[in-house]
Design brief:
3 helices; Helix-turn-helix transcriptional regulator; HTH_17; 68 residues; alpha+beta
Length: 68
């Protein structure tokens, strides 16, 4: 089993990782997410812990690239 299999948690990324992939600051990534109605929905574990599916995020990123 690889560490990217379902249930391993490797697919979930924090806002800092989203920002790093986009090469922007965390506040800029948060603004982008807030303004993009089609951005993947987050997984909320508690009030402070939010993660995004890396696979869904990458798919969303590719779809944005194709739109332009």
């Amino acid at each position: 089993m690889s560490d990217t299999d379902i249930g391993q948690g490797a697919d979930l990324i924090a806002i800092a990782e989203v920002a790093a992939i986009l090469s922007v600051s965390k506040p800029a990534a948060m603004r982008l997410i807030a303004g993009a109605a089609d951005f993947p929905k987050p997984f909320r574990f508690n009030a402070r812990t939010v993660r995004y599916s890396k696979a869904e995020f990458i798919e969303w990123l590719h779809s944005r690239k194709e739109q332009k």
